[in-house]
Amino acid sequence: MASIGQIIFGSMIFLIILISGLIILILAIAFSVSQGTVETSTPSTVGDLGQDVVLDCKFLMSGSGKLDDVSITWLKDGLRGVVYQYKNKAAQLQGQNAQFKNRALLFQNYISKGNASLFLRNVKLGDEGVYRCSVSAAKISGTVNVNLRVAAFSAPTFTIQTNGSLTAEAQRWFPQPEVTWSSQSGQLLNSSSQYSNNSVGITRVVSVLKAPVKADDTYTCVIQNNVVKAVAEATVKDNKVTGRTYFIFSGASTKVLSLHVLLAVILLHFVLDCIVIG
């Protein structure tokens, strides 16, 4: 006759096998419904005010399959109507919000290759927000979010003044930035900055490195706000200065899987939690 301990142990083994079968069934259903993913390489994107921007969205399918019959819908949180909709191999813009009329486009020649990205012309401050790209195709169904932030930014130009100081001038910044200077060794240097705004609130920045600059030295001017950071390096040689600038944008890049796979993963964690609690 089996002991109570053996009965409990056998019951636990049976429960684990049963739950494992359930997990396999859930995953099988998920992958049978959706054998592809909808992804974005840039879930956080910065648009340059007044310029064009691309909100990245791609759909990928494992194995063979047709990508001809694709439905793509772009929505913006808090906004009525669609940003852009593509269905039945054509744009469906009857319900498009007026804010995006003649400004939003898809790369239609590349949709069959998995490109659902949104091209947005002449970015405005009101375009800032969270956009949702939803794709439905054979064995593919999913949605990804892209957070668009809007700023104005430009690289500075450098000039050596007659008194030996070095001036950096950047024409387009929004929001208003802060400016710091440093030497090759990273030491902060004494400087002063002036800001002037045009009629639409774009800031022009003029910053002066006060200490006389030295020949063959490189100085770093950092212009930054909470969205964009410009790192500009100015090298002085023969009373001339050459500069190079690179930009760093706030936000991280992650990939988001399709909804069916996410659902399966959530259910898997739920079942495992139940086993631990039990």
UniProtKB/TrEMBL annotation:
Main location: membrane
Keywords, alphabetical: Disulfide bond, Glycoprotein, Immunoglobulin domain, Membrane, Signal, Transmembrane, Transmembrane helix
InterPro entries noted in UniProt: BTN3A2-like_Ig-C (IPR053896), Ig-like_dom (IPR007110), Ig-like_dom_sf (IPR036179), Ig-like_fold (IPR013783), Ig_sub (IPR003599), Ig_V-set (IPR013106), IgSF_BTN/MOG (IPR050504)
Species name: Triplophysa rosa (Cave loach)
Coiled-coil stretches: none
Cell compartments where the protein resides: Membrane
Sequence ranges assigned to domain Ig-like in this UniProt record: 50-145
Name of the protein described by the UniProt record: V-set domain-containing T-cell activation inhibitor 1
One Pfam family linked to the record: V-set
UniProt-recorded Gene Ontology molecular function terms: signaling receptor binding
Lineage of origin: Eukaryota, Metazoa, Chordata, Craniata, Vertebrata
Transmembrane residue ranges: 7-31
GO cellular component, one term: external side of plasma membrane
Membrane in keyword set: yes
GO biological process, one term: regulation of T cell activation
